[in-house]
């Protein structure tokens, strides 16, 4: 099962721009029609498997005269569309796209060759920056499937990464306006992300304005919401990338395991003293915290840096040095009476996260839960505290385009 080993390797989709051509337009069009034909066949004949659908649909899809690969690909698309539990009654594919597996395309530097019909090809010149070329020219990376849309070609790269044996931990505490990390060597950094919070706030006002100004026309308002939603997302993601990159780089350099809080739903929504209203906190948190965790997780995976999640309960309750309960001095200041030290709340939380003092370790798929708990036997968890292990395995974020399964 070659796909099994491949799916465990970290995977990254890199998007390239290219110049559209008319040839490609008609290929898009044909492929879309093929997919929709296959969908209709699947709905009618109810095949039991992908292979089944291919057998049934092959003769009629062959009429299009395209390379066999497109028949298989259209059947896969149709099968997964029809299997989707949330699908509409009569699913229909509107968008132009193509998906090609590795052996069916060739990529020579930035020149992409894709098949159309037997012995007939389309050549596309991709536009690549230095960033893109780093992936193209890296011989250690494996190329997986490519997905073409009207404007971009997305290439899935994967690599075999040896997992780093950690020498220590880095704990990350996420807040409204900063991401604070501390590692077990005693280094702490607060990365300011107030720009992201401000951005969110601005877009919130913008959305309110759209709502007021376009009250009469639902279609226009939907269009504008979508446009500004995309823009907002793009800008936020860019800013968070800078932070996540920095953290993963530090972890890799110093061989640290990344520890994050498993944020269930809306926990931080109720964290007061952030200076924002409730509704703002809620929206901002839900999305941004997940986004930053997602980014850190996949970047870490790419670099072979291990990531562990812990239960967020009580991360700012006790002193990281002497473990006695801390008192709240001001909104973001905590005081340890035993050690006579004042802590910044975010720093204290990140230190506690790095030390994994909290009772519950929420495991990733690997390492095993036992290992994750045993790794810190000397941290002095009070025996009364339950060593409860949450069996919930967080969703792993693979960047491969797995909306179209390719394991034929
Ligand atoms: Zn203390």
What can you see in these coordinates?
The structure is a single chain. The protein has 408 residues and is α+β, with helices and mostly antiparallel strands. It has ten helices and 16 strands. A seven-stranded antiparallel β-sheet has the order 2-6-7-1-5-4-3. Strand 13 and strand 14 form a beta hairpin. The protein is elongated, with a radius of gyration of 25 Å. The relative contact order is 0.12. The structure holds zinc ion (ZN). Zinc ion binds next to loops.
The chain-level structural class is alpha+beta
CATH architecture of the largest domain: 2-Layer Sandwich
Mean pLDDT: 80
Helix content: 40-55%
Question: Could you tell me how far the N terminus lies from the C terminus, measured between alpha carbons in angstroms?
Answer: 11 Å
Ligand list: zinc ion
Across the major sheet, the strand order is: 2-6-7-1-5-4-3
CA radius of gyration: 25 Å
List segments where confidence is low: pLDDT < 50 over at least 5 consecutive residues. Answer: 1-6, 266-276, 364-408
How many helices? The count is 10
List keywords for this structure.
6-stranded mixed β-sheet; Nucleotidyltransferase, domain 5; 408 residues; 41% helix
Brief summary of the model shown:
The protein is an alpha+beta fold and 408 residues long.
Walk me through the topology.
Blueprint: H1 2-8, E1 11-18, H2 22-45, H3 50-62, H4 68-83, E2 97-100, E3 106-108, E4 111-117, E5 120-127, H5 130-136, E6 142-149, E7 152-158, E8 168-174, E9 178-183, E10 188-192, H6 194-213, H7 218-253, E11 256-261, H8 278-303, E12 307-310, E13 327-330, E14 333-336, E15 341-344, H9 345-355, E16 361-362, H10 369-374
Parallel strand pairs: 8-11, 11-12
Antiparallel strand pairs: 1-5, 1-7, 2-6, 3-4, 4-5, 6-7, 8-9, 9-10, 12-16, 13-14, 14-15
Helix pairs in contact: 2-3, 2-4, 3-4, 6-7, 7-8
The structure holds zinc ion.
């Amino acid at each position: 099962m070659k796909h099994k080993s491949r799916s465990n390797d970290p995977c990254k989709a890199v998007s390239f721009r290219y110049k559209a051509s008319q040839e490609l337009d008609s290929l898009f069009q044909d492929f879309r029609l093929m997919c929709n034909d296959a969908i209709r066949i699947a709905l009618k004949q109810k095949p039991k498997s992908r292979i089944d659908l291919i057998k049934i649909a092959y003769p009629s899809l062959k009429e299009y005269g395209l390379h066999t690969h497109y028949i298989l690909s259209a059947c896969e698309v149709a099968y997964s569309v029809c299997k989707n539990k949330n699908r509409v009654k009569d699913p229909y594919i509107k968008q132009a796209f193509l998906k090609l597996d590795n052996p069916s395309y060739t990529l020579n530097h930035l020149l992409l060759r894709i098949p159309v019909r037997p012995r007939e090809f389309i050549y596309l010149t991709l536009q690549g920056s230095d960033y893109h070329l780093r992936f193209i020219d890296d011989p250690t990376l494996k190329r997986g499937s490519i997905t073409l849309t009207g404007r971009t070609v997305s290439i899935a790269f994967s690599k075999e990464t040896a997992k780093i044996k950690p020498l220590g931990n880095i704990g990350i505490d996420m807040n409204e306006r900063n991401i604070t990390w501390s590692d077990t060597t005693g280094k702490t950094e607060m990365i300011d992300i107030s720009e992201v919070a401000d951005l969110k706030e601005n877009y919130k006002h913008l959305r309110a304005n759209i709502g007021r100004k376009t009250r009469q026309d639902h279609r226009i308002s939907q269009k504008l919401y979508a446009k500004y939603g995309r823009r907002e997302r793009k800008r936020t993601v860019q800013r968070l990338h800078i932070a996540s990159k920095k953290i993963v780089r530090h972890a890799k350099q110093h061989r640290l395991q990344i520890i994050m809080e498993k944020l269930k739903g809306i926990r931080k929504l109720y964290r007061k003293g952030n200076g924002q209203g409730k509704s703002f906190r809620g929206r901002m948190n839900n999305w941004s915290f997940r986004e930053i965790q997602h980014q850190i997780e996949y970047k870490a995976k790419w670099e072979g840096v291990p990531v562990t999640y812990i239960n967020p309960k009580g991360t700012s309750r006790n002193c990281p040095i002497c473990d006695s309960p801390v008192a709240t001095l001001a909104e973001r200041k905590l005081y340890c009476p035993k050690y006579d030290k004042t802590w910044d709340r975010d720093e204290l939380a990140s230190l506690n996260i790095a030390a994994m003092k909290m009772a519950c370790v929420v495991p990733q798929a690997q390492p095993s839960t036992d290992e994750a708990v045993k790794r810190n036997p000397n941290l002095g968890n009070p025996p009364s505290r339950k060593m409860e292990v949450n069996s919930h395995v967080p969703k792993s974020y693979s960047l491969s385009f797995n909306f179209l399964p390719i394991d034929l």
